[in-house]
Amino acid sequence: MMFDQYKSYIKEETLKEYPLEAVFLITKNGCQKVDNIAKDPKSSFAVKTRDIANAQKEGLLAVVHSHPDYPAYPSHADMQTQLNYKIPFGLLATDGKSTTDLIWWGDAVPVPDLKTRTFRFGVTDCWSYIRDYYKINLGIELKDYAREWDFWKNGNDLYTKNLNDAGFYKIDDIKIIKPYDIFLCNYRSRIPNHGGIYIGDGLISHHMTSRDAIDISRHPSTEPLHRHRNHISAVYRFKDFEND
Questions:
Q1: How far apart are CA 214 and CA 188, in angstroms?
Q2: Of the four, 19, 149, 158, 216, which is 20 to 30 A from 70 by CA?
Q3: 23 pairs with which residues across the strands?
Q4: 42, 51 in Cβ contact below 8 A?
Q5: Is the pLDDT of residue 243 over 70?
Q6: Within 13 Å and on the Cβ side, how many CA atoms surround 188?
Q7: Cβ-proximal residues to 124 (8 Å cutoff; 6+ apart), any chain
């Protein structure tokens, strides 16, 4: 696990801060809890410019914060902040009596196993699976995007909005689908809310969830394409595969 030497300290201080979000900056000199100056520190966090500047002088390695009475998965704001800083971010949830384990995300975090990972929105969800699959199997690093749980219910189109930017173009006919093409699905939604990878021989590889943002029973799976054919709304191909 990352920064395990600070885990006990982070958990203890998180309980002390409850019901406010606790914030920690990990530098080359150690781990320090800093003041949360957000307008609503029960549901968000912000750090003094001075604290960030000092941490960056020491060599800022990671940022950790807590979610009081809220599941341990990153919010849209959490994800965007991590993308801005480009360092690992850690998260733990607490009810004031105990805490969850630390959850880490960001491109510098070791890639979780593609077969045994469980579903956690924003960390190991269907888009994370696509990115990690491409990185491990093809050596291609796709962009990540901040997103919110149930984004499709709020009218936000995560996939078609960003796939072109990530280097993909749309395939007009699913009959010409090729290995490593990305398929999009609409499940009880007019907006695509799931994606996976076609791996050839009529098979797909993807990471589905149930209706929860965290589901430890859900692992990635390989299934026949036809099982999801009625829900597939689009297929995208990576630009570098155009002439393959």
A1: 19
A2: 158
A3: 34, 65
A4: no
A5: no
A6: 4
A7: 112, 117, 118, 207
Q: Which of 31, 67, 185, 206 is catalytic?
A: 206
CA 96 – CA 173 distance, rounded (Å): 53
DSSP letters, 142-208, are -------TTGGGGT--HHHHHTTTTTEEEES-GGG--TT-EEEE-SSSSS--EEEEEEETTEEEE--
What confidence tens digit (pLDDT) does each residue in 62-82 have?
Answer: 999 999 999 999 999 999 999
Q: Is the per-residue pLDDT at 2 higher than 90? A: no
CB crowding 34-61: b at 16 or more within 10 Å, else e:
bebeeeebebebbbeeeebebbeeeebb
* Residue 194 appears among annotated catalytic residues: yes
**Residue 77 corresponds to which tokens in the numbers above?**
């704001």
For residues 203 and 110, is the Cβ–Cβ distance under 8 A? no
Asked about 206 being catalytic, the answer comes back as yes
User: Which residue in 194, 207, 226, 231 is the catalytic one?
Assistant: 194
Active site residue 231: no
- The catalytically annotated residue of 67, 126, 185, 207 is 126
